[in-house]
Write a structure and sequence with these properties.
It is built from 13 helices and two strands. By secondary structure, the protein is an all-alpha fold. It has one domain. Strand 1 and strand 2 form a beta hairpin.
Length: 317
């Protein structure tokens, strides 16, 4: 029975990843021809090289993951609903911030400061929206029983919403958020597929990973980017998979890690930390275009001196 359960979990995961990948690529191609809202210019942003990239990658990921959540075998109706709610909530609120948000306030501190001034920012709307849908998804995935159960659902909802935000914090360079998602999600998928009773968690992890992996070449090639909509959805769906697979102590530990990294992002630059570590920097640059060198200053060129090679320090929009 255990072997049969493991085979079923693995089969569901493979199908989920495949459907997510195919649906995401199909959605990306369709959206490139005709964006879901507005025109192509509304989805275009300038990246750290000064080149135009499209945000439609994120919408394609949400669409692919949502389609896979409906089709993938091994998921209960409750888990399908939780996955759809998670993807839709994170994707819609993230895309709202992408298309209509401003950059005057950034981070939790920035949005809280704006609220204190009586200003409701698009980022605050996104945080509240993803928090609410994450909480609802957690309640669907693991119904509460008693006060302890209700507190558990609150913690699970925080893990889903926090994971959505953390993934977005890594979406500062081409391919980085997807690589982080793969590094976090593949072990979770492997542990779920190889365990008894891990069928739902395996499928829930496979769905966003398949969609993200299929879109990775567009991200690394700097033709497209996840944006808030895609990065938030990727993180939230992996958070939901963690809620489904991990036991209570492990979920609380994961929430602690997410909270600690989020707090650290207010003080330190993840980009600088990654660049200073040879292994992390190698992983970060893997598959990417080489950094763009700085232009040679006129005075240095006249003196026959080479300008120092610069790193791409501007954040990906």
């Amino acid at each position: 029975m255990a072997n049969r359960s493991s085979r079923g979990a693995l089969t569901g995961a493979v199908i989920g990843a495949a459907v997510g990948a195919i649906a995401a690529r199909a959605a990306y191609a369709a959206f490139r021809r005709r964006p879901p809202i507005g025109g192509a210019k509304d989805w275009s942003r300038t990246n750290h090289r000064g080149e135009q990239v499209t945000l439609l990658e994120g919408t394609a990921l949400v669409t692919g993951a949502g389609a896979a959540a409906v089709i993938t075998p091994g998921l209960s109706l409750r888990h399908r609903a939780a996955a759809l709610l998670t993807a839709a909530g994170a994707g819609l609120f993230g895309t709202y911030d992408d298309l209509y948000g401003t950059t005057s306030s950034k981070g939790f501190k920035g949005h809280l400061a704006a609220l204190a001034r009586g200003e409701i920012t698009s980022g605050a709307v996104k945080i509240a929206g993803i928090g609410a849908t994450g909480l609802a998804a957690a309640a669907l995935a693991a119904p509460a029983k008693g006060v302890g159960g209700a507190l558990g659902v609150l913690a699970d909802g925080a893990l889903i919403a926090g994971s959505a935000n953390l993934a977005n914090l890594f979406d500062l360079r081409p391919g980085r958020a997807i690589k982080v998602g793969l590094l976090a999600g593949v072990p979770l998928l492997a542990a779920s597929a190889g365990s008894r009773g891990g069928r739902s968690a395996a499928a829930l992890a496979a769905v966003p990973l398949g969609a993200a992996a299929a879109l990775l070449p567009e991200d690394l090639g700097e033709r497209a980017m996840l944006g808030d909509g895609g990065a938030n959805a990727l993180g939230a769906l992996l958070g939901l998979a963690a809620v489904t697979r991990l036991n209570r102590p492990a979920r609380l530990a994961a929430l602690g890690v997410v909270a600690a990294l989020t707090a650290a992002s207010e003080k330190v630059s993840f980009t600088k930390v990654i660049a200073a570590n040879p292994v992390l920097n190698w992983l970060d640059m893997l598959g990417r275009r080489p950094p763009q060198p700085q232009a040679v200053p006129p005075a240095a060129a006249k003196a026959g001196q080479a300008a120092p090679a610069g790193k791409a320090s501007a954040e990906q929009v």
